[in-house]
């Protein structure tokens, strides 16, 4: 069974790489990095990871193999209580990269910036309609493709569900078609839909996400 722990600065590169490998087949990534190697986004993903590690409201977890310590999956939970985790002390280099996370300096050449910005805007607007001040948000849940179906995602979910039930808090998320059955199984219910039409931003096709909320105790 996978071991769950908080991510550290030393995990950032592996998490960034996992993010790209895991989401590379998705419509969003195919449109963001159309015609270019998605791995060119690794520096940007690394900066974003450092940025999340530095945010006291973000709980970035990894699931590891207890024998090899290989990272099998990760989850990113946003929990309103800023005192909910120990302060993450980052190196000067990591802090400098975190400061670049929201700037265009880290965008890889050829990335469809219009798709990226439209996605961020759509996520912000959708969360603005559904998320309450005391809700927990599951921003990301990802299992390495080679380790899917082994309980990694469930172990990462269990951590957040326990936190939510302790706080009597709801958990909000946007589910991909692949993740939707797991969330339904563990108590999330549909409250809306988010549709991204990439043709409006120089891309092709669309992506559909189910907006879901789990009430405490479900």
From TrEMBL:
Gene3D superfamilies: 3.40.630.30. It holds the Pfam family Acetyltransf_10. Residues 56-217 form the N-acetyltransferase domain. GO terms for molecular function: acyltransferase activity, transferring groups other than amino-acyl groups. It comes from the Eukaryota. PROSITE patterns: GNAT. This is Acetyltransferase (GNAT) domain containing protein. It comes from Lyophyllum shimeji.
């Amino acid at each position: 069974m996978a071991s769950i722990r908080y991510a550290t600065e030393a995990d950032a590169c592996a998490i960034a790489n996992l993010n790209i490998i895991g989401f590379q087949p998705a419509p969003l990534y195919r449109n963001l990095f159309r015609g270019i190697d998605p791995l060119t986004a690794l520096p940007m993903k690394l900066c974003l990871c450092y940025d999340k590690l530095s945010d006291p409201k973000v709980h970035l977890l990894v699931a590891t193999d207890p024998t090899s310590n290989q990272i099998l999956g990760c989850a990113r939970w946003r929990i309103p209580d800023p005192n909910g985790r120990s302060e993450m002390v980052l190196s000067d280099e990591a802090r400098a990269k975190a400061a670049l996370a929201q700037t265009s300096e880290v965008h890889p050449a050829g990335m469809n910036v219009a798709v990226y910005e439209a996605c961020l805007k759509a996520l912000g607007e959708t969360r603005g309609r559904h998320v309450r001040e005391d809700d927990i948000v599951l921003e990301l849940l990802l299992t390495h493709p080679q380790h899917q179906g082994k309980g990694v995602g469930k172990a990462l979910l269990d951590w957040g569900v326990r936190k939510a039930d302790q706080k009597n808090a709801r958990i909000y998320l946007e589910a991909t078609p692949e993740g939707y059955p797991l969330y339904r199984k563990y108590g999330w219910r549909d409250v809306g839909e988010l549709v991204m039409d990439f043709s409006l931003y120089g891309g092709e096709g669309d992506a559909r996400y189910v907006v879901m909320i789990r009430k405490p105790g479900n």
